[in-house]
Design a protein that fits this description.
With about 550 residues, the chain is of the alpha/beta class. The chain has 2 domains: about 1-255, Nitrilase/N-carbamoyl-D-aminoacid amidohydrolase (4-Layer Sandwich); about 260-460 and about 505-525, HUPs (Rossmann fold), CATH 3.40.50.620. It has helices at about 15-30, 55-70, 160-165, 185-200, 260-275, 290-305, 320-335, 345-355, 365-385, 395-400, 420-435, 440-445, 465-475, 480-485, 490-500, 505-510; strands at about 1-5, 35-40, 75-85, 90-95, 100-105, 130-135, 140-145, 170-175, 200-205, 210, 215, 220-225, 230, 240-245, 280-285, 310, 335-340, 385-390, 415. The protein has a 6-stranded mixed beta sheet, with helices on both faces.
């Protein structure tokens, strides 16, 4: 039995294009000898469709599309699509063969944590299904799963065992599992445990591509009944995994180095965000610092140098080395580069506010005007030329509130907002190592970070100390008390915890950011802006 796992990159809502995409890969798989083709969860409508699922015409369109695909099938296909039945909506896996829909399975476990809210839309299926699929003269009993069904240990049940008891000869899981650091290893370990328990071959077909904040890595997996990996899909690109169960060939799990995988995820995230929204070109401010430098590299690798515009916006506080570093970066990347001085504009602000600010000391308000002028200039270029602004702030800065609302936070996409400052440095060094040259000027990596909004300014944090604490509080969801017990500085932990809490209103107004960790600022972290809960006093 030859099975193909077709990890494709559909677009949410582009149902007609998704049909064409599915049929293209279906025909490739059949031509390669596949006797069963498998496509990911909700492949016809894209994942996650969110409130599109509340629109009747959207569901009508999806149903018609499924019927049209079924009519074109010869070799059996398993594919994900919504199902309306008796006034309820289900997340389903359908079996299509010989021009007909021959069976379906309703997803049992609906995730309601982090970025998932499937119970907002779907009703849970009541039973596990074993569906008979004909291969020539033989019938094979396939145990069906959809994504979260694999993670059944979190629900105090054992769906794989239930499928075994119902006579399944193999298990197929169609999935839309977002990428995060370490996710492939987690999936592989869990699948191996299910194979060990059931002695059933296991086929896991994952979607690939990006949708808003989420990035899907593909990396579909196929295991034989002995727990040997016999197929693995590419990371962050469409692919067919074709395996022959009668002649399995064991392979080793491919796990790329951490920096490479994160970087490739962000490149895909930017590329798909532009491709699927219709934008062609990006613009970003180039300060000569590490954050904008890394963002510029990612943008170029995602869109091509001809589609990226870098803008230097110096003031009286901008150092010569920062101006030179920005210019050198643009030259290294081969992008359009222009300089727009903000000095005269700042002078106009100072004059206009002189009476209102009279008697007060110069401080953060004046510094933030500089950031807001730069943000306004980038938005003006965006409006004029239809360039999408990329914001360049990192996760550590967003956590600490070390960013300017309507200034450097302006943008249509926050490329590195889920990277700690230490990860920004790690990826920047990796970029240069991978290129074998200085794509990012070494000075941008080695110099003390500074916003350059006042004379001799440097960032007020030791990022090597602050970034791990931010990650522990956000991603690991540790309490301040736990961190203190582990030896972290008490006053520093208190300060970081307070800053995270009081700056939620800023982050709520930030551009959508690409998610690469277990917990990002965005749809998977829903903390009230009005929040008087002080965890330090309630631990």
């Amino acid at each position: 039995m030859k099975i193909s796992l077709c990890q494709i990159n559909p677009t949410v809502g582009a149902i007609d294009r998704n049909v064409d995409l599915i049929m293209k890969w279906y025909q490739k798989a059949v031509a390669a000898g596949a006797e069963l083709t498998v496509f990911p969860e909700l492949a016809l409508v894209g994942y996650p469709p969110q409130d599109l699922l509340l629109r009747r015409r959207f569901l009508d369109k999806a149903e018609m599309a499924l019927k049209s695909i079924a009519e074109k099938t010869t070799v059996p296909m398993i594919i994900g699509n919504p199902l309306r039945e008796n006034g309820e909506l289900y997340n389903c896996a359908f079996v299509c063969s010989n021009g007909e829909i021959t069976g379906h399975y309703k997803k049992r476990l609906l995730p309601t944590y982090d970025v998932f809210d499937e119970d907002r839309y779907f009703t849970s299926g009541e039973s596990m299904e074993v569906i008979e699929v004909r291969f020539g003269d033989s019938l094979v009993k396939i145990g069906m799963q959809i994504c979260e069904d694999l993670w059944d240990e979190d629900y105090a049940c054992n769906l794989a065992k239930s499928l075994k008891e119902k006579g399944a000869e193999c298990i197929v899981n169609i999935s839309a599992s977002p990428y995060r650091v370490g996710r492939l290893a987690d999936r592989s370990k869990l699948i191996v445990s299910k194979v060990t328990e059931t002695a059933l071959p296991f086929f896991y077909c994952n979607i690939v591509g990006a949708q808003d904040e989420l990035i899907f890595d593909g990396q579909s997996l196929a295991y034989d009944g002995k727990g040997n990996l016999i197929g693995q899909g590419s990371a962050f690109e469409e692919d067919i995994v074709l395996v022959d169960l009668e002649n399995p060939v064991p392979i080793q799990l491919k796990i790329s180095e951490r920096e490479q995988k994160i970087y490739n995820a962000l490149v895909l995230g930017v590329r798909d965000y532009f491709r699927k929204t219709g934008y062609k070109k990006a613009v970003l401010g180039l300060s000569g610092g590490i954050d904008s430098s890394l963002t510029g590299c990612i943008a170029v690798d995602a869109l091509g140098p001809n589609n990226v515009h870098g803008v230097s916006m110096p003031s009286r506080y901008s150092s010569d080395h920062s101006r030179n570093d920005a210019k050198t970066l643009a030259k290294n990347l081969g992008i359009d580069y222009r300089t727009i001085s903000i000095e005269s504009i700042i002078g106009e602000f100072d004059e206009s506010l002189e009476e209102s600010f009279n008697g007060s000391e110069t401080g953060v308000a004046e510094e933030n005007i500089q950031a807001r002028v730069r943000g306004s200039l980038l938005m003006a270029l965006s409006n004029k030329f239809n360039w999408l602004v990329l914001s360049t702030g990192n996760k550590t800065e967003l956590a600490m509130g070390y960013c300017t609302l309507y200034g450097d936070m302006n943008g249509g996409l926050a490329v590195i907002s889920d990277l700690s400052k230490t990860d920004v440095y790690a990826l920047s060094r990796w970029v240069n190592e991978e290129a074998g040259s200085e794509r990012i000027p070494v000075n941008s990596i080695e110099k003390p970070p500074s916003a350059e909004l006042r004379p001799d300014q440097v960032d007020p944090f030791d990022y090597d100390v602050v970034s791990p604490i931010v990650s522990a509080l956000i991603e690991d969801e540790k309490s301040p008390t736990e961190l203190m017990a582990e030896g972290a500085d008490q006053e520093l932990v208190k300060d970081i915890s307070r800053r995270i809490r009081i700056n939620e209103y800023k982050r709520r107004q930030a551009a959508p950011g690409l998610r690469v960790t277990s917990k990002a600022f965005g749809i998977g972290r829903r903390v009230p802006i009005v929040n008087q809960f002080d965890e330090l006093n309630h631990d």
